[in-house]
Amino acid sequence: MKAVVCRSPGDLVVEDRPAPGAPPAGWALVAVSHVGICGTDYHIFEGKHPFLAYPRIMGHEVSGTIVETGDGVELTIGEPVVINPYLSCGKCIACLHGKPNCCVRIEVLGVHRDGAMCERILVPAQNLYPAKGLSLADAAAVEFLAIGAHAVRRAKAETGARTLVIGAGPIGLGTAIFARIAGLDVSLLDMSSERLGFAESELGFATLDGSTKTGAELVRDATGGEGFDVVFDATGNTASVQSAFAHVAHGGALVLVSVVKDDIVFSDPEFHKREMTLIGSRNALKADFDHVAASIRNGAVPLTKLVTHRTTLEDTPRDLARWVHEKSGLIKAVIEVR
Q1: DSSP label at residue 275
Q2: Which CATH number covers residue 103?
Q3: Which of 52, 73, 120, 203 could join 125 via S-S bond, C-beta 3.0 to 4.6 A?
Q4: Both 137 and 159 in a single domain?
């Protein structure tokens, strides 16, 4: 089969790889249809991912159809599916408490093991969700949107809560969309006037332009000095995460959607006097995938505006390398495999 392989940082090629064999019990063979390109994929290509062994087939935002099933699998041949790329052990403390998204021994497709930038892939049946009522193109967007949906659910914010999402990339936009679906009053903060212009004109969000004033000044002006009830940081930037503590109102919550490799330092007196809640949000659960799929079906998610770029499996090495640097107009790119 054809596969896009990152052999080393900056070296991305299409190779012929052996196709997967027959699925074992509890697994299924999926013909890959569409794969979204994530910030993680760009980081792998650039050599910035801290936990990756090369060579690696990337790709974890995936849709496809069932080709073959192992014993005990109830899925139907030809059935369209969304792939949950977080493979959990089912035995650790997190899994036993219903949190396989933060499994102690988690393996993420395209990161810890080979992913779906290829023609076929073996996946545990428990990680395959029927894509009922979705096109296969739309189904490939469910995973990246589920990240934001999970973060919003983790926040447990009250309807109408004044909410700030920092970072207007795909994950931040997804978080903002699902915060709005949850009934929150959402504003977006970013340093990119172009991305904020898109968020405002195409998606209808209030925006705070970090290229014009400091975040502290913008938050003060937007909230009368009170801060936001809920703040989501989706930047992947250490300085942004640390400054986000000061944007939270007394009694409010900060949700860390993105991950940074550095230690986070904050003022304990400021944290305590606000009685802040600090929440980590990792990956997503089936409930989040289901919520995203339902929201796409009912028209609450403007996918036609979010997916701005498309390519093929054969052209991925050229286009992904180009999109690392050519960000203008780029929100989400999708690979059409078949």
Answers
A1: T
A2: 3.90.180.10
A3: 73
A4: no
Contact indicator for 104, 117 with CB cutoff of 8 Å: no
d(CA 173, CA 195): 10
Question: Which H or E run contains 62?
Answer: strand 61-69
**Predicted TM-score of the model (pTM):** 0.96
Residues 10 and 49 in one domain: yes
Shared domain check, 8 and 136: yes
Instruction: State pLDDT tens for residues 16-74.
Output: 999 999 999 999 999 999 999 999 999 999 998 777 889 999 999 999 999 999 999 99
How far apart are alpha carbons 244 and 227 in whole angstroms? 10
Inform me whether the pLDDT recorded for 244 exceeds 80. yes
Domain count, the chain: 2
Range of the domain at 102: 2-141+301-336
Mean pLDDT (whole number) for 5-26: 97
Give me the DSSP letters along 180-227. HHTT-EEEEEES-HHHHHHHHHTT--EEEETTTS-HHHHHHHHHTTS-
Residue by residue, DSSP assigns 252-266 as: EEEEE-S--SSPP--
Domain for residue 129, yes or no?
Answer: yes
What is the DSSP secondary structure assignment for residue 109, as one 8-state letter?
A: B
> Does residue 165 sit in the same domain as residue 265?
yes
